[in-house]
Design a protein that fits this description.
The structure holds two protein chains of two kinds. By secondary structure, chain A is mostly beta strands. Chain A is built from no helices and eleven strands. Chain A has a single domain, classed as Immunoglobulins (Immunoglobulin-like, Sandwich), CATH 2.60.40.10. The N and C termini of chain A lie far apart (37 Å). In chain A, 35% of the residues are buried. The chains are: A mainly beta, B mainly beta.
């Protein structure tokens, strides 16, 4: 069964460093999402991506964040200068059409020291 | 814009029933339900697309009242495997998706 994959599973970084979180969505899916979940809290929408461009972003997704689909299969989230409060689980999700069932990757746990 | 869920947490014995509610201050076009087990990703349960629609999935079903901007998830004859955090979620007219505040469900033997 096709699945969304994410790498790395755990990333530890120093405050101020850049990190890139990687996702491989399901191959025929067209819509891609990044979410953040601080430990024990709700799942927060960061950004959605369709047709090679951002379609929506939340207020969390400021200039420190960027997304890219560099090669037609990978979907990346970059945080330019990490802060302590960026420590969270980051989930990638994909779906065949907007508003449909979302398939989530296993997540990347980001720890900023 | 985030849907609000109630209760925040519930503890059940195996075989008991539970209802989780999700309400929004904004119009709901559709409602998704997901379950997340500890340390794992959310897993899709079902989508409700029309006002008044009900759906079932094994012993888990849901209803959606578009006029009241509410949805409820019904878990009957709960099993240990039902434990987790349940989230409702809804897309806006664009391509944002808002998860609800979450309900932690614990089923004990």
């Amino acid at each position: 069964e096709p699945e969304v994959t994410q790498t790395p599973s755990h990333q530890v970084t120093q405050m101020g460093q850049e990190v890139i979180l990687r996702c491989v969505p399901i191959s025929n899916h067209l819509y891609f999402y990044w979410y953040r979940q601080i430990l024990g809290q709700k799942v927060e929408f960061l950004v959605s991506f369709y047709n090679n461009e951002i379609s929506e972003k939340s207020e969390i997704f400021d200039d420190q964040f960027s997304v890219e689909r560099p090669d037609g299969s990978n979907f990346t989230l970059k945080i330019r200068s990490t802060k302590l409060e960026d420590s969270a689980m980051y989930f990638c999700a994909s779906t065949l059409q907007g508003g449909a069932e979302q398939f989530f990757g296993p997540g990347t746990r980001l720890t900023v020291l | 814009q985030q849907p609000v869920q109630s209760p925040q947490a519930v503890i059940l014995r195996e075989g008991e029933d539970a209802v989780i509610n999700c309400s929004s201050s904004k119009a709901l076009y559709s409602v998704h339900w997901y379950r997340q087990k500890h340390g794992e990703a959310p897993v899709f349960l079902m989508i409700l697309l029309k006002g008044g629609e009900q759906k079932g999935h094994d012993k888990i079903s849901a209803s959606f009242n578009e006029k009241k901007q509410q949805s409820s998830l019904y878990l009957t004859a709960s099993q240990l495997s039902y434990s987790g955090t349940y989230f409702c979620g809804t897309p806006n007219t664009g391509n944002q998706f808002y998860f609800g505040t979450g309900t932690s469900l614990t089923v004990i033997p």
